């Protein structure tokens, strides 16, 4: 199989796992997470700008940085990934039932799916189009593991959300961040 086709399949499967995690587990249970969504939720009451505007700004800034530091092939694959995800999320939310029976189980399952999904997308030489771009750039220049940087960034976001989410959601969010980073690290290391 040609490399571009293999990469496209990995990007698709990775985004499908992310969409399942989001549509079946994270959104229905309001699981606190990092990434652009988590940052936007924390910033919104501080800067009084709508969440969608903050998300769009963060995505645009990280994408431009990815293009500048990682090149146009990375940017092209990231655009494909960014287009696939919302379509898959919409399909998942429309056709799959949400899992709201046990938030701890939902947290663990979603963290595994997100870690593996992001790992597949990164192994294909792309990004999901959000806050995984800064760790990729940092890894390129300083050789710090992407999973470690993401864990620090996402943990910080979750902890900053304590005021808005409360202690239970923050603890579950930290559990999610830890599991996700371990699975991501494993996915990136195993070839």
Q: What can be said about this structure in brief?
A:
Helices cover 82% and strands 0% of the residues. With 191 residues, it is an all-alpha fold.
* Separation, N- and C-terminal Cα atoms: 16 Å
Structural class: mainly alpha
Shape: globular
Number of domains: 1
Number of beta-strand segments: 0
Task: Give the helices and strands as they follow along the chain.
Answer: HHHHHHHHH
> What's the alpha carbon Rg, rounded to whole Å?
16 Å
Please summarize the sheet with the most strands. none
Put simply, the count of helices is 9
Overall helicity = over 70%
Structure description:
The chain starts with a helix and ends with a helix. With 191 residues, the protein is mainly α. The model has no long low-confidence stretch (mean pLDDT 92). It has one domain. The chain contains nine helices and no strands. The longest helix has 27 residues, at 3-29. It is globular, with a radius of gyration of 16 Å.
């Amino acid at each position: 199989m040609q490399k571009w086709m293999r990469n496209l399949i990995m990007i698709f499967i990775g985004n499908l796992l992310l969409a399942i995690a989001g549509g079946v587990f994270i959104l229905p249970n309001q699981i606190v997470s990092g990434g652009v969504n988590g940052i936007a939720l924390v910033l919104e009451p501080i800067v009084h700008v709508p969440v969608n505007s903050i998300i769009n700004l963060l995505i645009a800034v990280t994408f431009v940085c990815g293009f500048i530091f990682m090149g146009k092939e990375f940017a092209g694959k990231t655009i494909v990934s960014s287009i696939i995800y919302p379509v898959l999320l919409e399909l998942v939310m429309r056709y799959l039932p949400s899992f709201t029976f046990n938030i701890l189980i939902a947290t663990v399952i979603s963290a595994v799916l997100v870690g593996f999904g992001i790992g597949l997308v990164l192994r294909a030489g792309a990004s999901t189009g959000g806050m995984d771009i800064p760790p990729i750039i940092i890894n390129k220049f300083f050789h710090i593991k992407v999973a470690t940087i993401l864990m620090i960034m996402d943990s910080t976001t979750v902890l900053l959300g304590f005021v808005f989410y409360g202690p239970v959601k923050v603890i579950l969010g930290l559990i999610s961040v830890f599991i996700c980073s371990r699975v991501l690290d494993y996915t990136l290391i195993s070839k």
